[in-house]
Amino acid sequence: MKENRLSVLMGAAFLMATSAIGPGFLTQTTFYTETLAASFGFVILITIILDIGVQLNVWRIIAVSEKRAQDIANMVLPGLGIFVAVLIVFGGLAFNIGNIGGAGLGFNVLFGIDQKLGAIIAAAIAIMVFVFKEAGKLMDKFAQVMGFMMILLTIYVAFSSQPPIGEAVTKTFMPDTEKDYFIAIVTLVGGTVGGYITFAGGHRLLDAGIKGRNALNQVNQSAVTGIAVASLMRIFLFLASLGIVAQGLTISKDNPPASVFQHAAGDLGYKFFGVVLLAAAITSVIGAAYTSVSFIQTFSPVIQKYQKSTIIVFILISATVFVALGNPVQLLLLAGALNGLILPITLAVMLIAAYKKTIVGDYKHPIVLTIFGVIIVIVMAFLSISTITANFSKLF
C-alpha cells in the first residue's frame, strides 16, 4: 500500500511536469536562452520560486477541500466553476492540437514519416493508455518513464554543447541589468503552471484518494517534485542552448530546439531531439486530455461514468482537427490569450476559498503562500488582459 501511494505521488508530480514539458516549453526555453544568454538563469530561478508558490496554493486547497477546482469555484461564486471549466476545456483542446502536431513532428524526425501520419500514431499511443483497466496507474508510469528519458537525453546534449557553467551560475544571481526579464518570467510561469497544467497532478491525487489535512505533507512533496522535474528539464535545456549560443553558432528560427540538439551532438543529437519532442508531446496530450475532462466530469453523471471514453474522444477530436486543418493559427491565438486568464482567475478563486470555512473548515492557510499567490494573480491578470486585447485586434 505504501509503495502504491508513493507511486501515485510520483505519478501526479510527473503528470504535472510532463504536461508542462510540451513543444512550446522546448521552444520557449531555447528562444529566451538565445535572447538573454546566461542571464536567462535568473529568469529560471525566479520562475521556479513563483511556480512553487502557485502549485502549493492550488494543490493544498484541492486536498483540504477534497474537491476539484471547478467545484471549489462554484462554491466561491455559483456559475464560476462552469466558466473556469469552459476556459480549461477550450484551452486544453486547442493546445492539444499543437501537442498532437508536435508528436507528429517527432515521428517525422525519427523515422521520416509524414507528420500527419505521425500525429495519428501518437494519438493512438495516448488512447492506448486509457484503454487499459488500470489507466491511472499506467498514466503514472508512462509519465515517469517519459520524464526520466527526456531529462537524461537533454543532460547528454547539455554536456555535449560545453556550456559556460560558471557564467551561467554567476548571472543566475547577478544578471545583466540592461535586459528586460518581465515578459520572460510571466511567459515561463504561464507555461509551467498556467491553464490546465497545475491542476493535472492535483486532480490526479484527488482521484487516487490522497486528500484531507493528514495528506498535506505528501501533497506538498508531490507538488514541489513536479516543479523540480519540470525545472530540471528547463535548466539542462538552457545549458544546452547556452553552449551553442556561447560558441557563436546560429540557432534556426524555424525549429530552435532541434537546431540546438543538432549543433551539440550532430545527427545523433537531432534524433535525440525527435525522441524528446515525441515524449514531451505525447505526455502533454495525455495530461491535457485527462485534466480537461476532470474539469467537466462533475457536471454530468454520464461523463463521470464514462470518464475514460470521454478522454479518448477528446484525444480523437484533437487529432482529427490537426489532420484536417494542421495548426489552426487563429484558434491557437485565441486559446493562448484565454488560457493566460486561467491562472489568475483560478488562483484568485483558490486564495478566496482558502479563507472560507464552508470549503476548508478550520484549516489555516500559510500567509506566505497567500502573499505569493496575490502577487502572481495581479501580475498575470495584467499581462493576460494586455495579451487578449492584442490578440482580439489581430483576429477581428
Automatic annotation (TrEMBL):
The primary site where this protein sits is membrane
Q: Which InterPro entries match?
A: NRAMP_fam
**Annotated compartments:** Membrane
Q: Where are the transmembrane segments?
A: 36-54, 75-97, 117-135, 142-161, 181-202, 223-252, 272-296, 308-325, 331-355, 367-390
Keyword annotations for this protein? Membrane, Transmembrane, Transmembrane helix
Instruction: Give the bilayer topology.
Output: Multi-pass membrane protein
Question: What is the protein's name according to its record?
Answer: NRAMP family divalent metal transporter
